[in-house]
Write a sequence for this structure.
């Protein structure tokens, strides 16, 4: 798949994913597992929601 997640977006997704997982642990809820989704999209640098809209947060030299 085509990469469409830039470095800043990647860092934000990782932080957000960790926060969701931490909230799940704190509140003892399995919903914290949803934090895995932004982490996976950050690591693969591909966001399925961005694809149909043609959004690309990478810079030109970020390939």
């Amino acid at each position: 798949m085509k990469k469409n997640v830039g470095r800043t977006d990647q860092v934000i997704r990782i932080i957000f994913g960790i926060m969701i997982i931490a909230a799940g642990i704190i509140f003892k809820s399995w919903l914290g597992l949803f934090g895995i989704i932004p982490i996976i999209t950050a690591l693969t640098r591909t966001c399925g929601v961005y694809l149909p809209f043609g959004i690309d947060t990478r810079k030109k030299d970020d390939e």
Q: What stands out?
A: The mean pLDDT is 93. Residues 7-26 form the longest helix (20 residues).
